[in-house]
Design goal:
The protein is an all-beta fold. The protein contains no helices and 21 strands. The chain has a 19-stranded parallel beta sheet that branches.
């Protein structure tokens, strides 16, 4: 296993051997590093390493260069992709068993990944899953302030999304998801179908799409957004101490079944919204 380091000694071409130290482009099984020893952007011949799967691809916190672009991401696969860089943007595509985002930048497009991702760990900064990617599991955690430290943006038409575990920061969801476990921070659902939302702490803000079943526990919040949103919500299981707000002007496509499992702390449902209440 080699450990090539990006230098950009010649130019921004990722296929040029002279742009690495030692002078050889990353090969299968390598541990590829991008750090602050170079300021050269990786911006040319982005598909040169399409067939390569390295063991690790790591972008260090000192790395300030741009990587790829929105239409031409850096195409390289890795067992583990770690990004903590501070460049204006970074775009990757490939097949990844594990992606870790820990950038200190919170600008939109700070870090973007496409292709096929098995597990994504969003720890810090702005992390984006590009429209049309395949994602299985996401963990949204935090390394600093719980509410604001990380934003994971999941774009439209992302497929295969089975599980999201959110315990800090924000999950901005624009595709379908099977199971959400919200134990802190906030999830914003804008589009797609969320089959089961387990909200045990923090909040889920319902702005669009469908929630099939929401389980809202002590201290947790289920809230709708501004007037005019068109939503579908089938069943709410409301537990002791929960907070439910379904606001005036929000349009629901069908009646909501509300299963009363315990005394809520706040139950604010506008009279215009059709609800079937079951006392348990």
């Amino acid at each position: 296993m080699a450990t090539p380091v990006w230098t950009g000694a010649t130019d921004g071409n990722v296929g040029t051997a002279a742009n690495y130290s030692p002078a050889a482009a990353p090969a299968a099984g390598d541990e590829f590093r991008i750090n602050g020893t170079s300021t050269r952007d990786l911006d040319t011949n982005m598909a040169a390493l399409t067939a390569v799967t390295v063991d690790k691809c790591g972008v260090h916190a000192t790395a300030g260069m741009k990587i790829g672009a929105a239409g031409t991401p850096f195409d390289i696969s890795a067992t583990r992709l770690y990004y903590a860089g501070r460049g204006a943007w970074a775009y990757f595509t490939g097949t990844y068993a594990n992606v870790i985002c820990a950038t200190q930048k919170k600008d939109v497009s700070s870090f973007n990944v496409a292709g096929t991702i098995t597990i994504l760990d969003a720890k810090q900064g702005w992390c984006g899953v590009t429209n049309g990617a395949a994602l299985t599991t996401a963990h949204v955690t935090h390394q600093g302030a719980r509410q604001t430290d990380v934003i994971l943006y999941v774009g439209t038409s992302v497929t295969g999304f089975t599980t999201a575990n959110v315990n800090g920061g924000v999950l901005d969801l624009n595709s379908s998801l099977t199971t959400l476990n919200n134990t802190g921070g906030k999830t914003i659902l804008r589009a797609g179908t969320l089959t089961t939302a387990n909200i045990s702490a923090g909040a889920v803000e319902f702005r669009g799409g469908t929630i099939t079943t929401a389980n809202v526990y002590d201290g947790a919040v289920l809230d709708t957004g501004p007037s005019g949103d068109i939503l579908t919500l089938t069943t709410i299981n409301m537990f002791e101490g929960s907070v439910i707000r379904l606001r005036r002007g929000v349009i629901f496509g069908s009646a909501i079944t509300l299963n009363w499992r315990g005394q809520p702390r706040v139950l604010d449902i506008d009279e215009s919204i059709a609800v079937t209440l079951n006392l348990n």
